[in-house]
């Protein structure tokens, strides 16, 4: 069984995250590249904001969660591979998209907009908890992702994580979790690796 993350693994989420951050802080002088570098370096939004001389506004995290899944901001996402290349990753009959989203209808809208007709599962809590609840411990599972939530799933004995280096998480953050994983720096490396290990 193989599960592939969406945001940051198959989609370039940086324009969306950058715009939400700048909108909520009401700033216009932070470039996408400046934001990406500091978000990867510091992780936590409050530290990122302070590094730019700002403080997070009240209700930042609630408003961030809402805006990140609004259609206006989801429309900023772009595929990191072609739709055809992504569909090919899901030809392996036990491959499923595994993503955390609050608004399932918005995910359906986004996948349709991107031309992706692929099997998808939405988790409400964590991916580790979902895998624990819905997958057999006897089944070997590969999870591909870009965040600490994806890597955390590797705490289960039957789950092997493959982490990518172009999304939200960094190799340094991954190494600090103490979970074994394979690291793939680019989206092309990820595509080739999965193509060769069906």
Beta strands, count: 8
Give the C-alpha Rg: 17 Å
Arithmetic mean of pLDDT: 95
User: How far is it from the N-terminal to the C-terminal residue, by CA?
Assistant: 10 Å
- What is the helix/strand order? EEHHHHHEHEHEHEHEHEH
Largest pleated sheet = 6 strands, parallel
The strands making up the biggest β-sheet line up spatially as: 5-4-1-6-7-8
Count of DSSP helices? 11
Low-confidence stretches are none
Shape: globular
Report on the structure:
The chain is α/β, with parallel strands linked by helices. 45% of the residues lie in helices and 16% in strands. The protein has eleven helices and eight strands. The chain has helices at 14-25, 32-42, 45-51, 60-68, 71-74, 83-89, 104-113, 127-134, 148-152, 171-177, 187-196; strands spanning 2-4, 11-12, 78-79, 95-100, 120-123, 141-145, 159-164, 182-184. The strands form two sheets. A six-stranded parallel sheet has the order 5-4-1-6-7-8. Strands 2-3 form a two-stranded antiparallel sheet. Helix 10 links the parallel strand 7 and strand 8 (182-184). Helix 1 runs antiparallel to helix 4. It is globular and about 50 Å long. The termini are close together. The mean pLDDT is 95.
């Amino acid at each position: 069984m193989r599960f592939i993350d969406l945001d940051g693994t198959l989609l370039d989420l940086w324009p969306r995250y950058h715009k939400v951050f700048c909108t909520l802080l009401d700033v216009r002088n932070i470039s996408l590249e400046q934001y990406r570098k500091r978000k990867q370096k510091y992780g936590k939004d409050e530290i990122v904001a302070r590094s730019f001389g700002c403080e997070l506004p009240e209700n930042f995290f609630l408003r961030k969660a809402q805006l990140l899944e609004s259609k206006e901001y989801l429309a900023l996402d772009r595929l990191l591979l072609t739709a055809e290349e992504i569909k090919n990753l899901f030809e392996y009959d036990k491959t499923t998209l595994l993503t955390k989203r609050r608004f399932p209808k918005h995910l359906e809208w986004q996948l349709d907009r991107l031309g992706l007709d692929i099997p998808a599962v939405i988790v409400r809590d964590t991916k580790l908890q979902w895998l624990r609840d819905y997958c057999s411990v006897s089944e070997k599972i590969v999870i591909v992702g870009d965040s600490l939530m994806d890597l955390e799933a590797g705490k289960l004995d039957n789950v092997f994580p493959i982490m990518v280096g172009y999304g939200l998480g960094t190799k340094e953050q991954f190494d600090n979790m103490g979970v074994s994983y394979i690291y793939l720096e680019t989206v092309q490396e990820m595509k080739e690796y999965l193509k060769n290990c069906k």
